[in-house]
Amino acid sequence: MHASSVPFTDLFLRFITMTKHIAKIFASLALTMPLLVATSACHHIDTWDNDPYGNFDALWTVLDEHYCFFADKDVDWDEIGRQYRAEIDPDWDQIQLFDHCAKMLGELRDGHTNLSSWFDISYYRQWWSDYPQNFNERIIEQYYLNFEWRSGGGFQYKYLTERNVGYIRYSTFSICASHSFIDQMLYSMKDADGIIIDVRDNSGGAIDNVEKIVSHFITEKTLGGYIQHKTGPGHDEFSEPYPFYYESATGHVRWLKPVIVLANRSTFSAANNFVSAMKGLKQVAIVGACTGGGSGMPFSSEIPCGWSVRFSASPVYDAEMKLTENGVEPTDGGAIDMDPEKEAKGIDTILEFAIDVLNRLADKNNSSSTPAKVIAQNPHHNG
Question: What three-state secondary structure class fits 169?
Fold first, then answer.
């Protein structure tokens, strides 16, 4: 069986079709396609044996030529390869080889890098397991929502009238409600001092759902950040950064009042990108802990024994060209952990902090000549 380097044209096309907003930059990248084709055509194709050494070499080479964060993570991949290859026993069975290869991939400290076989999937967990949890779903549902909320499309929400804030829990970007649902959800909270969007323990999903939600918090085309792709097998061979933008949800509810996004270390991947995008908006603050990162767009390849490897291949940056692979920090003054003693009493200190901030901002806005507002018409009038 053969294992070859993934052609750069195939890698790029898969990258282009991956998300809606990234697809929009296809036209600007089209001019670079001849160069990519030429680079791919000149690149050698290796043949690997289907044995412990051949599978290891194929895996190492795929990462060596296409992984995008070696420099950012200060990883000496050559030395790691030499070390782990020297430890291989040619008589290993599949499980022994799998565990050894998975351990090598763990050196990358990347939650988007996984080895998949018919019997197991490797996963690097230390990006969140070494940090405080900073979230307790039962406390939210029992002590703040009183086991009563509306839900749909991955959202749970409730207008906390006694605190005069709206609370929105979004647990996964794998599903997302319609614009009409988001309209209704936001409009139901129009009299609140502000809203809290809780994406703690949200491990990501579809990146186009980030675009849909963000569109309800902007009134004009807004720079979301930049993305690069590999242009060759060298660790430093990347395209120029290409910008991507978010469009406003014209004709729908746009929320311009204060927003606080709650994050923890388990906020990862698409959720990490959402926090990054929201942090750049003037009415938004991030509260809680640094997110778990995972900003590299993942791609997959295969080695001779049929196992597949997924890895980060295209780095994503925020609007200020800051890499978010290692996480997005809270807004200045917004870093806070849950207090274990208060948690035992049913109090979420991160949520309480956010509610207090929104109430204080409301007092300030009430004295302003240009208070924050919601651009909306009643969604019920739209049928």
Answer: strand
How many C-beta atoms surround the C-beta of residue 89 within 10 A? Answer: 10
pLDDT value of residue 231: 94
pTM of the model: 0.85
- Residue spans per domain, the chain: 137-227+246-294+322-382
Q: What are phi and psi of 287, to 5 degrees?
A: -130, 145
Judge whether 225 and 317 are in contact, CB under 8 Å. Answer: yes
Q: Give the span between the Cα atoms of 282 and 297, in whole angstroms.
A: 27
Residues in CB range of 341: below 8 A, 6 or more apart = none
Helix (H) or strand (E) holding 301: strand 297-302
- Cα 259 from Cα 261, distance rounded (Å): 7
Sequence-ordered list of residues with C-beta below 8 angstroms from that of 87, at least 6 positions apart, any chain: 100
Q: What is the pLDDT of residues 113-124, one digit of tens each?
A: 999 999 999 999
Instruction: Report the alpha-carbon distance of residue 33 to residue 249 in Å, rounded.
Output: 32
CA max distance for the chain: 77
Burial zone of 82 (CB within 10 Å; 0-12 exposed, 13-18 middle, 19+ buried): exposed
Residue partners of 89: CB distance under 8 A and separation at least 6 = 52, 96
d(CA 40, CA 273): 30
Would you say 87 and 244 are in contact if contact means Cβ atoms under 8 Å apart?
Answer: no
**What pLDDT score was predicted for residue 366?**
61
Tokens of 249: 């949800």
Which amino acid belongs to residue 322? K
Residue that is written with structure tokens 């991947």 in the block: 269
Distance of CA 313 to the CA centre of its chain: 14
Which of 88-102, 122-136, 168-182 is the most confident on average?
88-102
Check residue 177 and give its pLDDT.
79
- Range 137-227+246-294+322-382 classified under CATH 3.40.190.10: no
Residue 3 has pLDDT above 70, yes or no: no
| Predicted pLDDT of residue 375 | 72
For β-strands 165-170 and 195-198, DSSP reports them as parallel
